[in-house]
Amino acid sequence: MVLENDLWKFSLKTYAHAQVAEYCLQLQDEFGVNVNLILWCLWLESRSIAISSEDIHQANLAVALWQERITVPLREDRRALKLLVEDCFHYLQLREQVKRLELLSEQYQQFILWRYSASVISSWQAYVKSEMSLYKNSHDEGFHDLSKDKFDQVDAEKSIIWKRPPIALAYFYDLNEKNKRRLLGIKNIITESDINGQ
């Protein structure tokens, strides 16, 4: 199984920014937010994809068991090893191996999310296509691509509210305004760094 994909590449570039890592870890440690879901939402937003609360719920379900049983215990082991002040070669080697396993576990979660993205993107594109068709039919002149500004739209037929991915994630975790701004701050760092332009 090849775990390398566009989401993983995006995440590596994004997380390399110190402030992004800091914000993500604060949200993880203080509110239990899954960093992989943050990065997944930011990746979708960088591609102008909106999502529904059901999309977030399903994405979380897809990775929750792996997160709880594999990733979190590896993270706790790595942090416990970090507290030990041992300077021997075998200790340092063990710590590095646990760190590598944790990273591989994160990568596998992202692979699951990336695979799930196909249905999310397909649903969003179908919605945008139908909206553009309706718009074109009712406004023959001045037709333009609506896909970039369709966030926070309601699909009455399916009772879906499309939201910007970081905002949908903030509602899923019931984050306060300060932490919603934190999520959007990460998005701004990405935009300013032109990570999503690649």
Description of the structure:
The protein is mostly helical and 198 residues long. It has one domain (6-117, 164-197). Helices cover 72% and strands 3% of the residues. It contains 7 helices and 2 strands. Strands 1-2 form a two-stranded antiparallel sheet. Helix 1 packs across helix 3. Mean pLDDT is 84; it is low at 141-150. It comes from Marinibactrum halimedae. InterPro entries: CHP02444. This is TIGR02444 family protein.
**Percent of residues in beta strands?**
under 5%
The biggest sheet amounts to: 2 strands, antiparallel
Average predicted confidence as pLDDT: 84
Q: In angstroms, what separates the terminal alpha carbons?
A: 25 Å
Helix-strand topology string: HHHHHEEHH
Annotation field: number of helices: 7
Strand order of the largest sheet: 1-2
* Annotation, overall tally of beta strands: 2
The percent range for helix content is over 70%
Number of domains: 1
Pick out the low-confidence regions. 141-150
Q: Structural class of the helices, strands and pairings?
A: mainly alpha
Rounded to the nearest angstrom, the radius of gyration is 19 Å
Q: Sum up the overall morphology in one term.
A: elongated
Protein name: TIGR02444 family protein
InterPro entries: CHP02444 (IPR012659)
Pfam families: DUF2390 (PF09523)
Organism: Marinibactrum halimedae
